[in-house]
Amino acid sequence: MVDDTSYSAKHVSEDGMWFENDIHQKGVLEMMKLMYDSRQLTDVCVAVDDQQFFCHRAVLAATSCYFHAMFTTSLAESRQSDVRLHEVDAESVNALIDYAYTGRVHITPFNVQNLMIAASLFQVCCFSFLRYCRLFVCFTFYLVIIAYALKSEWQSLAKQHNATNLWMIQINSMSLLCG
Asked: Do strands 82-85 and 44-48 pair parallel, antiparallel, or not at all (unpaired)?
């Protein structure tokens, strides 16, 4: 059954109208991700460390100003089927490639710094992504400050209750707070 709400006629004028399918873009991106996962019609291999990612130049170029310049100018990489990347880690490149195909990225306290470095290097064409990374770093830093501020309260409780294992409670609480 077709959802009629995803189709609409926009910009009706005397000479015609524009038909729009609101789910078309999402469907195309989902199909590109399926083709990426099954290595169908890929035209470039991006190598980082000992990992290889078989990608579509058009998807990378549409998401990254760095790859757009690499693949659309007279750079040697525009004619090569293999591109080796340096100064970035494979996990971050994998996350950004996944972002290019899905619009989603998993940000953690452990990967946020490398993701920001890679996204900056590749000039990821989504400022909200970088802004979200910065907010995530600030929020994580805020949680560490709160945990540190609570340290004196935990030490006070330890003295009051002669609790020898309160230090472990503090460490566990900080790991819960900070990821």
From this structure: parallel
**CA-to-CA separations, 15 to 10, 34, 91, 104, 164, in angstroms, rounded:** 13, 39, 51, 40, 82
Whether the full predicted model's pTM is greater than 0.70, yes or no, is: no
If asked whether residues 86 and 119 sit together in one domain, one would say: yes
**Which residue is listed with tokens 């953690």?**
108
Give the CATH number, domain containing residue 121.
3.30.710.10
φ/ψ region of 119 (left if φ > 0, alpha if ψ in -120 to 50, else beta) reads alpha
Closest CA to 92 of 51, 58, 61: 51
Residues 6+ apart with CB under 8 A from 92: 111, 114, 115, 117, 118
Shared domain for 56 and 92, answered yes or no, is yes
- Element holding 78 (H helix, E strand): none
CB-CB contact of 67 with 57 (8 Å): yes
pLDDT digits (tens, 9 = 90+) for 47-71: 999 999 999 999 999 999 999 999 9
